[in-house]
Structure formats: structure tokens, C-alpha cells
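Entry 12.
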Amino acid sequence: MKDDFAEQYKLKNRKNKIIIGIVSLISLLGAGLLIMAWTMSSNIMHPLYSCSEEHFIYCGDPSQLGLRFEDISVQSDDGYDLSSWYIPAEESAKAIIFVHGHGADRQEGMRWFKAVHEAGFNILALDLRNSGKNIPSFSSMGYFEKYDVKAAVDYLYQQRQMQTVGIFGVSMGAATSIMAMVADPRIEAGVFEAGWSNLNDLYAEIIHQHLGLPSFPILPLTTSILEWRTGIDMNQLNPEDILGNIAPRPVFIIHCTGDKLIGFDHGERNYAAANKPKEFWQSSCQTHARAWQSAPTYIEKRIAAYYLKYL
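Predicted 3D structure (C-alpha cells):
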């Protein structure tokens, strides 16, 4: 009898240890997932930045291009003072706003400045919130940054008496510019380089391709934490859902066919979602947002002609 009791006790004790072990393992996995998701949301909110001449070509200011410029500040409706460059063009009432990508600043657009300026356009190159010399905020992947673009448009029309305004956005700046253009009919033509079509799809691809992990449950956990920390709505960060609303104003999609960060299919989806008039340059470049480097003379002429046609 005692032996049976002892055996039952050992069996029960063994089962309890197994249960405790399973619960501990699940707890550790859960804690690991939470830490990973929190870290990913932090990297999205506060990206590291350093200017790379390999990517940006220029890491100084417009004087490197022989362009006269002014350091200015434009203020968003929610109170952010946004450091910017204003590059005037003689006897012109037309302007282009340059909007940089995630983890970049206004220097990213400099490789395009000279051709656009020589075509007769004033330029406003904007540092989005949490970028450049601005008071630190956080990146919202375009959700709040679209208000920074509105501030730039207000400045050009109200302070510089522009008659027409176009926009040029790169990567996150492309998504930001699309959202701003949909909301603001004063923006009359847009060029969007290397933008995503659906942000959740992009994050799933990054998790799978660069981390070698399945997107579930990391992606929904990360996006939930990101929405909670920032107040954004991820469902409103999908340009392909709204691009068609820009027409009859023109759009020009640019995407590297070998882009390993935001895949070429995102460019294809954005072009398919847009209504006419629309253009698409499928650049042969193999690196994210380096279309200019692949054929500078060709694309500078084409971009200048596009803006001259529609602005």
C-alpha cells in the first residue's frame, strides 16, 4: 500500500514538474516575443541615421551643387518646427517639395536638386519630425509626417506666393507624399520612388527575409505595440488603397527592379492602383532607392520634363 502511494506521489510530482517546465518555457517564449516586438517597434520609431555618400551622393548642403539656399523652418499644425532648405529659382512661381525616407533627412534628395532647379523650379527640402535638426519626436511611417508636408505646402503658397506645387518622395517619403497628395489638392503632381504598397505586407517580408522567422505572431504583436505607443493606425498606411484617388492629377512611380528592402512588386502594385495620367520607370538598380545612380542623365531629363508638363 505504501509502495503504491509512493509511486503515485512520484508520478504526480513528475507531472507537476513537466507542467511547470512547460509553463516556464511558454513564459520565456512569450517574454522573448514581447522583447523582440518592443525592440522592433522602437527601431521603427527611432531609426539610426548617418549620411552615406554611396547612397545620398551628397552629405553637405546645396552649396555643394553651387545652389544658393536659405535655412528655414516651417511649422506643422501640431506645433513642430521643421528645419528645411529653400532654394529659390529666378522668376518662378513653381516649386517642388522633397520628402525623405525613414532614417534619412533632407540630404537624401540632393542628387535630384540640380536638374529640378535648372528646369526652373524652386525647391523646399524638408526634414520630417524626428529627423535632421528637429526636436526629437518619433517616426510614424508617414501617419503624422503627412502633416509636415502640409506645413511645407502652406509655407510655399502663403510665404513664397507659389502658384503651383509638386512633390517628390522617397521610400517612407513616397508613402508620406502619397497620403499628403490625396488629402491636399494643392499638390498638383507627384513623383514617388521606392515606396511600399502595403506596410503590413512589407514588415512580413522583412521578418521572413531578413530575420528568417515567420511573420506570426511577431508581426501582429509588433504592430499592436507600435499602434499603442504612437497612436497610429496601420490600416491607413497602405498607399495602394488610396493612390487611385489622386487622379486626375498625375503620378510617376519609380522603383528599382532589384530592390531588396521594398521589393519591386510594391512598385508594380502602386502603379496598378494609380489611375491615369501615370508613369512608371522600372530602374535596373539592385539597391533600395538608388534609381538616380542607375541612369542619372536619363532620369533627370525625364523628371524635369514630367514636372514641366504638369506644373
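Annotation: The longest strand covers residues 81-87. The chain has a mean pLDDT of 92.
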